[in-house]
């Protein structure tokens, strides 16, 4: 972390550019996906990595790199500094159909006035 502070002036955090809320999956999807919940995409930031990858409002994220995702906290391990610039395989449900989307982890820009 010290090396990051010296090199960049702040601790770098990963960023996809989405807002999410947990949602319960319908019974049919629950069986096919193998889990009860996922993350409904409620916002996609303009010019974000998620937007460039094609994530849309209403998509439901159910996995990242083969691991189930059911709460926003489940995404945090994939947003650590060592993942910045890496492509992640994100499993989504769109219009009832599962599909995989490759999303590159971007770097969150520090807010002005903060170190």
Structural commentary:
The chain is of the alpha+beta class. It has a single domain (13-107), classed as PDZ domain (Pdz3 Domain). Helix content is 17%, strand content 37%. The protein has three helices and eight strands, in the order αββαβαβββββ. The protein has helices at residues 2-8, 27-33, 49-53; strands spanning 14-15, 18-24, 37-44, 60-64, 67-68, 87-94, 97-104, 106-107. The strands form two sheets. Strands 2, 3, 4, 5, 6 and 7 form a six-stranded antiparallel sheet that branches. A two-stranded antiparallel ribbon has the order 1-8. Strand 4 and strand 5 (67-68) form a beta hairpin. The longest helix has 7 residues, at 2-8. The two termini are 14 Å apart. The model has no long low-confidence stretch (mean pLDDT 88).
Our count of domains comes out at 1
Quick one: overall form? globular
Structural class: alpha+beta
CATH architecture term: Roll
Topology pattern, helix = H, strand = E: HEEHEHEEEEE
Helix count from the secondary structure assignment: 3
In short:
This protein is of the alpha+beta class and 115 residues long.
Topology:
Layout: H1 2-8, E1 14-15, E2 18-24, H2 27-33, E3 37-44, H3 49-53, E4 60-64, E5 67-68, E6 87-94, E7 97-104, E8 106-107
Antiparallel strand pairs: 1-8, 2-3, 3-4, 4-5, 4-6, 6-7
């Amino acid at each position: 972390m010290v090396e990051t502070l010296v090199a960049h002036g702040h601790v770098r955090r990963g960023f996809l550019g989405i807002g999410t809320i947990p949602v319960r999956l319908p019974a049919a999807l629950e069986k096919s996906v193998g889990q009860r919940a996922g993350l409904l995409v409620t916002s996609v930031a303009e010019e974000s990595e998620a937007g460039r990858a094609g994530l849309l409002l209403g998509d439901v994220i159910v996995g990242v790199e083969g691991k189930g995702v059911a709460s926003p906290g489940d995404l945090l391990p994939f947003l650590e500094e060592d993942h910045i610039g890496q492509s992640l395989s994100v499993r989504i449900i769109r219009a009832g159909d599962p599909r995989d989307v490759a999303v590159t982890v971007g770097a969150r820009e520090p807010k002005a006035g903060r170190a």
